[in-house]
Write a structure and sequence with these properties.
This protein is of the alpha/beta class. 29% of the residues lie in helices and 31% in strands. Strand 2, helix 4 and strand 3 form a beta-alpha-beta unit.
Amino acid sequence: MENNLQQLYGNIDIYLFDQLLKGRFNYCQKVLDVGCGSGRNLPYFLQNGYQVYAIDPNSEAVDQVRSLAKTLAPVGNHTENFIVAKAEDMPFDKNTFDLAICSAVLHFANDSNHFDAMLRSIWRVLKPGGFLFTRLASDIGIEHLVTPLENSRYALPDGSERFLVNEQILLEYTDVLGGELFEPIKTTNVQNLRCMTTWCVRKLI
């Protein structure tokens, strides 16, 4: 059983796995992973008939995803689907994807303008009715433990530096972008060292 799960889902983000179990993305066809890394969130989509695309600024990561796609889905997912690019500058037309996954990417923003540019770029390529699944660092629950630096970046108790959001920022963006939450905002607190928030938004217009 364990091997079967590993083969089907790989090392998938547990909150993305939760959405798959709920059948949230059953009717999606074109999927984009923004900041794909080695492709940890892609095995299920590659093996189940989705048209999978991915971008990452690291060329070695993109090569790994191309290799993964050749192994898991040699038909239908071409190497040109996997591109070296930044989230804020993606070479895709607007209204292209049914689902965009952006896991552990947005908190690397240099400042609020960079965060805004990345987010709006992702939103642009989503179709109306499309889903945005994001996981990003926040200060929710550890507000008194983070140290402000510059440009909305903070020092975290785990020693890292991140651009942090809070619930108000996420709710404001949900409204401004013309979206709606398709799952309540959820935050995981890792022993008061860092917090990761899941933000799931559907594009209405």
